[in-house]
Design brief:
Elements: H1 2-32, H2 35-42, H3 55-59, H4 69-86, H5 90-113, H6 132-147, H7 150-173, H8 179-200, H9 215-233, H10 241-262, H11 267-287, H12 292-306
Helix pairs in contact: 1-8, 4-5, 4-6, 5-6, 5-8, 6-7, 6-8, 6-10, 7-9, 7-10, 8-10, 9-10
């Protein structure tokens, strides 16, 4: 049963990863290799980065990975490896140790190999697909969410996802990247993690977000993410703000979805879930008068009251 579950999970993850890679390549072709795609994205560029709200955390705080992207990857990966090692989750440690650097390096490698031909008049013709800044944030977020204990997820996930949203919207509002760059970074990083996870992960059940937060808490978290996205995307060209916010939110949602597909339950989680389901089933049986178990229990009590000696068991004989 476990082998079948593991094979099914592996097939699903590889299939989703293949679709993400296909989407990554199609998005690149449309946004970088067609005149209409280049014109549409270049029309969103403009203004000065000093006029954005994220200029303060970038310029004054050196907020990572706006700055120190390499150091951010090293620090985030080291923390993730340490957390996994303390819990002795060696399989998850291997996933993050392999997928994190591969995802970041693949982002830079594609950018170096793939070009951006000049199909429209534009002062900015440098290749920027996919976004390395967003890829760093996405990879570190995925690595940490995969290894943190389940009890930490309800607190760590909102913080890490808000950080990722801020980076995505920030590089767009400051004009460092185009919208397709951020979406491409999310697609490529998610695909790499799913491939590595499919090859190394076991058949453990994945954690479902609805088990972590109540509906009001989930709505509150989503509202905070929207506020962070809008604030990070703000610039004097107000008509671009909702576009940048939506792009960063969708890209971060993909990262979060990938993380919850890979952060499988630990054996302790499985035991607690099983005990909870058994207790719930037992409670339901006791509360339902018409249930078969309830009827059998009542029948046993009647038989014992009518035949006291028989209730002692087969080993009792009359002398």
């Amino acid at each position: 049963m476990v082998d079948a579950t593991s094979r099914r999970a592996k097939t699903v993850r590889l299939s989703v990863a293949g679709l993400l890679i296909l989407g990554f390549l199609v998005l690149y072709a449309i946004s970088n290799l067609t005149a209409i795609g280049q014109w549409a994205e270049n029309s969103l560029l403009g203004g000065y980065e000093t006029q954005t709200l994220v200029w303060f955390p970038y310029d004054y705080l050196q907020f990572p990975p706006f700055e120190h992207g390499g150091e951010t990857v090293v620090a985030g990966l080291a923390i993730a490896v340490l957390i996994a090692a303390v819990q002795r989750r060696w399989r998850d440690l291997a996933i993050v140790a392999i997928a994190t650097p591969v995802a970041v390096l693949a982002t830079q490698a594609f950018k170096d190999v793939a070009g951006r031909p000049r199909l429209v008049v534009s002062p900015d013709v440098d290749p920027s697909y996919p976004s390395g800044h967003f890829a760093v944030a996405a990879a570190v977020t995925l690595a940490l969410l995969i290894v943190v204990p389940r009890t930490w997820l309800r607190w760590c996930a909102p913080l890490l996802l808000a950080w990722t949203v801020m980076i995505g919207a920030g590089v767009l509002s400051m004009g460092w990247h185009r919208s397709s760059d951020v979406m491409g970074g999310a697609l490529l990083v998610s695909a790499v993690f799913l491939i590595v996870g499919a090859l190394l992960a076991s058949g453990r059940g994945r954690i479902r977000p609805r088990r972590l937060w109540s509906i009001p808490a989930a709505i509150a978290i989503a509202s905070v993410l929207v506020v962070v996205a809008v604030a990070s995307a703000w610039k004097p060209m107000l008509w671009t703000v909702p576009i940048f916010a939506i792009v960063s939110l969708l890209s971060t949602a993909l990262v979060g979805r990938t993380a919850f597909q890979l952060c499988g339950k630990t054996p302790t989680d499985d035991v607690s879930d099983a005990e909870g389901s058994d207790t719930t089933a037992s409670d339901r049986s006791e509360q339902r008068p018409g249930h078969r178990g309830h009827v059998a229990a009542r029948a046993g009590e009647s038989a014992a009251s009518e035949h006291p000696i028989a209730a002692c068991g087969k080993g009792v004989q009359l002398v």
